[in-house]
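protien #1 (seq + structre)
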Amino acid sequence: MTSAQSDERIRREIEAQINLPSPPAIAVQILNTVQSKESSLSDLERIISADPSLTGKMLQIANSAFYALPNRVSSITHAMSILGTNVIKNIALSFVITSDLRNPAIKTFDFDFFWRRSVTTAVSAEVVKNLTGKKDDDIFVTALLQDLGVLVLFLNKGEEYTPLLTKCRTSNNDCSCLIKLEQEKFQFDHQQVSCMLTRSWKLPLSISEPTCHHHFPENAPEEYRQSAEILSLANLISTIYNGEETTENLAFLQDRLKEQFDMDKKQTAKLLDDVAEKTIAILEIFELDPGEMKPYSQMLQEANNELGRLNLSYEQLVMALKESKEKSERFARELQEANAKLENLAFRDGLTNVYNHRYFQEIFEKEIARAERYNGDLCLIMFDIDFFKKINDTYGHPTGDQILIFLAERIQNAIRPSDILARYGGEEFTVILPETQNAGMKVFAERLRRCAMEPFEVEGHSIKITISIGGVYYDLNSRGINKQHLIDTADRALYLSKQNGRNRVTILPLSP
């Protein structure tokens, strides 16, 4: 597969699964004004000045330690003349986008942490850029937006995406952990979503292209490779201040700065202090709580003071570190196991241990979307036990429950690994058959019917049952028919099997 074909496949996958947010209206105005040959600087000034809050923040950042200008800036016009149109544009875009993409009502995602980390990355990118001597007015906003794909994926796939974020956070892995899980789950990752989003917003290539490779800068086209490397270093610095495994990441950063800029440990510490001091100032302007962020030298001094008070020997320190690491690893494993159990409980039927109604509804929707995306075949079977009430009345409900358990086990052993068995409710079950045509479904349904007829041995009783089955086939000619219509058709086919004598299979065609 060529690079162009790969990009096209990823684009189709993202478009099929993700609703990309539109840029804020004022951001569109700013971009159009900057890109238009007919617009003047006064047009940009007018757009920004129309929003008093934005104007105030622009002047705050222009007068902050971030730019360390010799004289106070009193107007947007003055700021443009000193910082340049491009810098002003990017500062304005940064405020507008971060303000628009924050939703405190959603409690399952820490928006403040996400943007605090992003702002730290943006400041870090600006500091690292100055080391390279590269002129890149876009690097701040590029770094700010580089992980926007994480936010977009959460907003689109919250229930599916949250376990991925949790797994990587508890296992203390870096971005490669999340990217691997995303590729396995969705066939694309947050880096690719960020890239597609910035392209769809028609941001300059100097912004959109480095975001495509910020985690793997070696893959970037030569024109954008240095910018991508700056973003990668900035992300590492941000992880030191906003993540775990600080010591390990610090050593990694030191090695990279030594290799690229011949920086020693003191120079690295000074760079980290510079990032922290500037980030704390910028976070206040973005109305974000800096949390416990403090300059690296202060963190180091506090740690040394604490060790001094403890008065521990070297051997005691090694032992304490080993115990702490083991405890942390054990806690992470226990948390992952607990999350897996909770997820299993949420999607499994408590009696039969097959998938439950909730999971069936979610996965069936995805299988329909997959069939449409790849022009595949899909079948749905619904079946239930004939005269089940009579079994409960004759042998008692505990025996009826055992019949349900044994039937579910028997059917589970009869289906393919790709098929999905779920308890729909009561004595009714469903089987989703991906990549199965109408003829194959008929053969499969008959096999299930015969499979259920073998007697069940329950508490000394040999109990015979039969099942009635209904099925529906979803093919290329059925595109556009919704999930509920498919379920209703299969249910109607099941009803006809009951009406026509039970212990039989009925397949109905889909009708518009």
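ok now protien #2
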Amino acid sequence: MSRKKRGAFLQQLVYTGPVSIFFILVILVPFAMGMYYSFTNWNGISGEVDWVGFENFRTIFMQDNAFRTAFWFTVRFTVASVILTNLVGFSLAYVLTRPLKGRNVLRTLFFMPNVIGGLLLGFIWQFIFVKGFATLGEITGLAFFQLPWLGDEPTGFWAIVIVFVWQSAGYLMVIYIASINNVSREVLEAASIDGASRWQVLRSIILPLIMPAVTVCLFLTISWSFKMFDLNLSLTKGGPFRSTESLALNIYVESFQNNKYGLGTAKALLFFIVVATVTLFQVRLTKSKEVEA
């Protein structure tokens, strides 16, 4: 190896070596250990680890009704959250790219919920749903505020969706704002001169040109929705009767409360496969619809 190549190798080693080591120790090694434990009946505490093969996966598919309920809840939650969060985020971005007074203040206000931790945010909204809405219901007499928001399966589902959208839409708003601002002003002016309406400009010019941002935002919201845990734990704890339990919370309960670490890691492995498959399909689909400005 020549001195030049040796120097380049050492330079790459210095820059990427520490990061690679941490990536291996923090990501790859725990992932490999999780795959191993998914084929065991380890309880997460004892030193005895018995290999059971595919027994955990057979239990999940044949006997675990709670996992199927959590999976269906997570799918419904993901669909609702992805659609609503992107619609709200894009709508805010579209409005706040207009020449409005105080738009920078509004951008900050809409982004602020994203910087609040999920558990803290969940406990704040738990107080709002239980105490705040009850008080408003007594004052106004409106049935909307008198619903059992966290005590019933349908309203509990939408309570979690509302808080998730409220927390995440501001982050997507920032991405959409950056993308909309990069749309060529000349193209928009030409469309306006040709008599195109705002809806035609939005549908035929802005949306096709911001598809890279749509790809990123869909990827983020699908990933966040599938992995939603902290809001679920702080708002409903999966109740009533585990009807609002997400997959992430189901895995947590199985592993750390029921002390079935092997079964929990088997569920986590299936969870990873589902999320990876869905996100790869989504990225490939939206990438094919991107156009160049």
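The radius of gyration is 24 Å.
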